[in-house]
Amino acid sequence: MAAFIAAPAASSPGRRPRPPVLCTATPAGVSPRAPRAPAPRCEGARLATGVAAAWPLGGGRAIGRHCRHRRLGGGALPAVAAAAAAAAGTPSLPPSPTSKTPAAAGAMAATAGGTPPPPPRRAPVVGSIPRPTSEDEQWLQRSRVKRDPANAARTKVVICGCGSFGTALATVLARNGYPVTLLARRPWVADEINTEHRNPKYLSEHVLPPNVVATTDAVAAFDGASLCVHAVPVQATRAFIMEHVDDYPPGLPILCTSKGLEVSSLWLMCELLPSLLGTERQYAFLSGPSFAKEVISGLPTAVVIAADARPFAHQLAAMLSSPTFKVFTSADPVGLEVAGAIKNVIAIAAGMSDGLGLGTNAMAALVTRGCSEMRRIALLKGASAVTLSGLSGVGDTFLTCFGPLSRNRTVGVRLGRGESLDAILASSRQIAEGVETARALERWLLTGSAAMEAGDAGGLTTAAARAAIRYPILLGVAAVLDGRLTPRDGLDALLAMPPRQED
Ligand SMILES: NC(=O)c1ccc[n+]([C@@H]2O[C@H](COP(=O)([O-])OP(=O)(O)OC[C@H]3O[C@@H](n4cnc5c(N)ncnc54)[C@H](O)[C@@H]3O)[C@@H](O)[C@H]2O)c1
Ligand SMILES: O=P(O)(O)OC[C@H](O)CO
């Protein structure tokens, strides 16, 4: 890991984006403090607004038509995203309630009851993800060659979130030779990791490699780090980052593993993190079928890392890859994240079906139709269909819906057997992200850009009526979690729906 990405060259409309500029300044690997190239221009946003303005962005996020401001309906610059989305005909998520920008406030007023925004004029663009270029392939080769033990030993990784997945990824990285520091919340947890080489709260039966250490001191944890792995649950992320925001070294790249939609903003992690930690750093997102327990046990696992800047994804893939941990790369963080969030909600539904004893036919139908709902939302958000059929899409959905280790599935099974949600959550120490994500999704589907979705939905005109037809499983899970429906009534309502053309 001797080189890292400084910034891509600006692209012009109609021209093929130029390859990212590489910074080879630091032999110790990813340097958060390396001098940066001039900020690129965000062509997508500039074209969309028709103004020759420029926004500073880090990494490869501003590459022509792949600009994240066009694809995302929120993020660090909601006004820009909304303008770009409107011009491109791509719906956007409502801005964060905490947003301070006047444009965002206006957009919120519109969502809250003013004039509704116009429906999109054309269908979202699908398949706009770039193909690997020869430069990408060269990078992949170079990255593989670079993972030599001496270099790894000088590349410190800090992991935020000392739970199951943080601990499992710490082990993967440490086995590859990287020194890892887990940022723990409790001193006794850090002490036991340092003295006994075990995480006493999560996966405690596993001995951690000696190059995994822990601390509760954030300044010490971040000091000298070349990469930060974010494994804090989605709903705790905002508070966690607000607490430590001054401790993050400028430019420290982030690899996020959390899956879900933040309830307060309705944002994905690829929108939330840059809004909290700024756009002048690289972000990548890891997902795919990967139970922490199997990862730490060294059982074969394959995941995907997505980043707007492909070389960054390649570098991270090289850091994490091993014979039992295969890392594919993608340039579609939005697709990966939408799928990662929604599969947890589908898994709750699958669990309910199992808990009710409805059999495998029902389960397969439910999961398949759940995937249709996932696909509809992902395409609305500008994701690639390829991502949805990949490891982070159906791959992780299969694992979570059918795998006995899934916490989300377990919540569903217990609901189906008649336990209350409060009792289930009170008796579980671990996070089931699908619970809060289901609530966020319901709000987004009823008030957000999905509610604006144009097209034929049986002549129904209200957003709620259209959403009920298009997203019966996702909305049904939210209603059950909220106590408005029993699992039995929810599944009966699904069965009572008239058959229609499969889509
Ligand atoms: N466990 C898995 O198999 C797995 C696999 C892939 C992805 N993920 C994702 O990784 C993320 C983390 O999941 P996990 O399995 O590690 O969860 P977990 O329940 O095992 O642990 C959560 C960790 O977050 C910490 N935490 C909670 N609130 C916090 C706060 N306010 N500030 C700081 N830390 C806080 C807890 O102390 C704990 O260390 C989730 O989004 C999950 O979907 C999990
Ligand atoms: O245990 P779950 O339901 O949170 O699922 C874990 C991971 O997301 C599997 O990839």
From TrEMBL:
GO terms for cellular component: cytosol. Residues 332-447 form the Glycerol-3-phosphate dehydrogenase NAD-dependent C-terminal domain. The keyword Aminoacyl-tRNA synthetase does not apply. Residues 1-14, 98-114 have a biased composition (Low complexity). InterPro entries: 6-PGluconate_DH-like_C_sf, 6PGD_dom2, G3P_DH_NAD-dep, G3P_DH_NAD-dep_C, G3P_DH_NAD-dep_N, NAD(P)-bd_dom_sf. GO terms for molecular function: glycerol-3-phosphate dehydrogenase (NAD+) activity; NAD binding. The keyword ATP-binding does not apply. Residues 156-309 form the Glycerol-3-phosphate dehydrogenase NAD-dependent N-terminal domain. HAMAP family: NAD_Glyc3P_dehydrog. Belongs to the NAD-dependent glycerol-3-phosphate dehydrogenase family. This is Glycerol-3-phosphate dehydrogenase [NAD(+)]. It comes from Porphyra umbilicalis.
